[in-house]
Fold these 2 entries.
Entry 1:
Amino acid sequence: MLKFLQSGSAFRTNAKRVVQTCRLMVGIHDYDAYLLHMHGHHPEIEPKTRDEFYRYCLEARFPGAGKISKCPC
């Protein structure tokens, strides 16, 4: 494996940050950060699954997007 692709390398760390920033810009929150928050601050509550979390974020950004009668635009 190439050195710059190894876990913990500066390139890989920066690439993860760029991906996270792009996701936040389009309204997709970081699921891993959500899990860390839930386990650290709310251990008594079971966290949402990845699919539930994605749907929650989508609904928060585009209310009614799952309904055919409404356009999210």
Entry 2:
Amino acid sequence: MTHEESGRNEFGQELRRLREQAGLTQVQLAARLGYHHSYVSKIESGAREPRIAFADKADDLLAAGGSLLAVATRIRARLCAGLVASAGEASVPLPRAPHGADQLRPSLTRYVRLPAFGVTCPSHGINGCAAPVPGGLAEVPGVDGLTVGAETLHGFAALLTTYLDADISEVAGDLAVPVERALRTLTTLVPMARGVHANGLLQLAARYADLAGWLRVKRGQHGIAMTWLHRGVEWALASGGVATACEALSSMGVLAMIEGDAATALDYSAAASAVDPSRLWTGVHAQLIQARAHAMLGDHREFSRLSRAAQRAVDQFDGRDRIEAPWLIGAAGATYIASHLAGGLRDLAEVTGRSVIADRAVMHAETSLANVPARMHGSRLMLTLRLADSHACRGDLDAAVELARPVMAAVTSAPATPIRHELSRLRTRLGSRFAELLDSMGLCRL
């Protein structure tokens, strides 16, 4: 018996027990829930998997306390994600939030117009809505578990936009602390919500998990990062949040590249694009990661093919693509794509030893650095190092040293893994010149 069949049987048996305990026939239960009695019969026999909406309604009607929704969510996640889960999966705990104070300043914005920062309201989708911005987790309606509803969805969605904005701006303090506290609160509220609200909260939990995973990547805690990203994929697929599933899988691909595993990066990016082929932006995102992975493997032809395909597809984006992936649009998109091309060409030049490819890496790195907004301080540091490393890759060590010198004090103390990764590559490329660079700045050698 597969895990899916086992899960369906578990749900069906529990549903039958609760129905009989309530003194209802299958026909009566189906009528009260708004379904045909044959559907209830198939679910109780384990022939059909329960829909999230059905599980939520049945949970409420039969006063199951969230147990039916929990089982249905696990089943749905396994079916959609194609995961083979162990029998003890439900007992695997969520990561604990890191220690530290919530130092994020309350937002001065009173309302946010959703969608924003790629976040859509689970209730209104791409049609949009105006949501009040809470000053912190405690101000989100329904966090007490008493009145979990539409306002709770708006509160968590609006709060998420402030976290994403803070991540982009790299504000002081450890953003992982408030994000994971909000995420753990969300997971406790999902079983308390009803109808579409339960599904909406699960969608938001997936989005928070995706952000939490990336923040752990930046902290260098890759094991915990993968745990959050994995949960993000499961929760997103279980609740219909396919855009978030694509983002989380893409983040897994980036993490694989950071760890030097190009083959795994290809697998994750392929999975991301396969979740929903109708979304052009997910294909573009996947193609950029795949191009970088092929560059690491020295495959110039595939790198070029995928890079060109990604750039062409951006021009064909529809309204949904532009809303869900604003970082791929306009000047921000040009900067994002140029940074990927610079990284891939730099890697190709390293593998092939061709200076002409390194010249192109320098060109794209200059473009990305020139256009990245000043408030994206961390990105500017990383791209400066990438540009310096591209110069070093083509043999111009003097240019590399001069580019890196002004940012060395900042990058040597930066905790973000992507920055440290670029710094490590530059250090290897410069050799003894790197020690000279540190000495000239009065910095301790790494």
